[in-house]
């Protein structure tokens, strides 16, 4: 059975984006995202897909799955689904090990609400972003067992420090 993981980076107040873009540039978090998702299917909302710079999409060496209710939405090199559950089932069929849900806010919220998620990989960015428009859904973290993965201090390449944790169903 494939493990379905959410991967997300959040600010102190669970901010994840602004104006259909990210709120930070954290190369070592991007590296973590790449290492984790490489060779696995990734499921994303149409807005998240549009937020990815054209030169990076579809993400290389991964099955890219976009969900949109626009049946003719053009997403070259990606699989398009109009139903999130069907998209995740398709991803599971194509990869027995791991499937990643890579956002944005709507897709995180719906997949958690539908109880489709086994694991969360959350980068906690140590800053607040009052300008944010998009937020990770409110969840009860006491229902999840937390384990530390890695830490990044602020440095010349990282304007904010962060810590990454894995949360599995307690
Ligand atoms: N910090 C992070 O880790 C992270 C990760 C990813 C994204 N983000 C940020 O999140 C923001 C985007 O999030 P968002 O909530 O605005 O958009 P989103 O979740 O990326 O995409 C929403 C779109 O997905 C489609 N959709 C949603 N539910 C669906 C369903 N059940 N069936 C079929 N299609 C469905 C709809 O597309 P149509 O309108 O085409 O029907 C909807 O408009 C951006 O700011 C981005 O930078 C942050």
Task: Give a structural overview.
Among the domains are: 7-38 and 121-147, no CATH class; 41-96, no CATH class. Helix content is 22%, strand content 31%. The chain contains 4 helices and 10 strands. The chain has helices at residues 27-37, 46-51, 84-94, 105-113; strands at 3-10, 15-17, 42-45, 64-67, 79-81, 98-101, 119-125, 134-135, 144-152, 162-169. The protein has an 8-stranded mixed β-sheet, sandwiched between helices. The longest helix has 11 residues, at 27-37. The protein starts with a strand and ends with a strand. The model has no long low-confidence stretch (mean pLDDT 96). Residues 8-9, 16-17, 20-22, 45-48, 51, 67-70, 73, 82-84, 102-107, 110, 134 line the site of NADP nicotinamide-adenine-dinucleotide phosphate.
Notable traits:
globular, 4 helices, alpha/beta, two-stranded antiparallel sheet, eight-stranded mixed β-sheet, 170 residues, binds NADP nicotinamide-adenine-dinucleotide phosphate
Q: Quick recap of the structure?
A:
The chain has 170 residues and is an alpha/beta fold.
Low-confidence sequence ranges:
none
Strand order of the largest sheet: 5-4-3-6-1-7-10-9
| Quantity of strands, as a count | 10
Principal-axis shape equals: globular
**Main sheet specs:** 8 strands, mixed
Helicity range of the residues?
10-25%
Number of helices: 4
Order of helices and strands: EEHEHEEHEHEEEE
Which hetero ligands occur in this complex? NADP nicotinamide-adenine-dinucleotide phosphate
Structural class estimated from helices and strands: alpha/beta
Instruction: State which percent range the strand residues make up.
Output: 25-35%
